[in-house]
Design goal:
Keywords: DNA-binding, Transcription, Transcription regulation. The chain is mainly α. Helix content is 75%, strand content 0%. 28% of the residues are buried.
């Protein structure tokens, strides 16, 4: 029996190239650059995704699944205390923004760059933020916070701010500052 190395098909190569290039160059990266990086014919882009907009939306959807799973793993690893689980998010963000390849929040960048309000990417980023909000809100409710929905809004704002400042002012230690503010939000619920 012989084994053959499986090579990724055109769809997977397009997704991988688009994931990398839209993060490093933004969603405005040209179709020719995407096709060149993936070594895929233009026809494959349209067959698999209907065009660049469909490819961008799928890349955002896949990245959102990965990032949501990372939030869940981070919180699980912090143990059973909801306060510890929520603060672990900011500890993890400190590591993310410190990476040399960090370029900011993929979702915020996409929302700002996609001028068409009906672009399918916007629906993906909204849904992703809603799922993260739900994760935070659930922990806040378990903590006994009197306003878990509002507090989740506040924590999500701190997360977005951390990622934005991490890209534009990395030396400002945005995750550490956000963690201190998060502690105040959590402690306000205990008062």
């Amino acid at each position: 029996m012989t084994s053959r190395a499986t090579t990724a098909g055109p769809r997977e190569r397009l997704l991988e190239a688009a994931k990398r290039l839209t993060y490093t160059r933004g969603v405005g990266v040209g179709i020719d650059a995407l096709l060149s990086a993936s070594n895929v014919a233009r026809r494959s882009l349209y067959e698999h995704f209907g065009g660049k907009d469909g490819l961008i939306a799928e890349v955002l959807r896949l990245a959102a699944e990965e990032d949501e799973a990372t939030y869940r793993r981070t919180m699980r690893a912090a143990g059973g205390n909801p306060r510890d689980r929520l603060l672990a998010v900011f500890d993890a963000l400190a590591k993310v923004v410190a990476r040399p390849d960090f370029r900011g929040c993929r979702y915020l960048a996409a929302d700002l760059a996609l001028a068409d309000p009906d672009h399918p990417g916007h629906a993906v980023t909204r849904e992703y933020r809603q799922r993260v909000h739900h994760l935070l809100e659930r922990e806040l409710a378990a903590l006994g916070h009197p306003r878990p929905d509002l507090a989740a809004d506040q924590l999500l704002l701190l997360i977005d701010g951390t990622l934005a400042a991490g890209a534009t002012r990395p030396d400002s230690r945005p995750a550490a500052s956000a963690r201190l503010l998060a502690e105040q939000i959590l402690d306000a619920g205990a008062a």
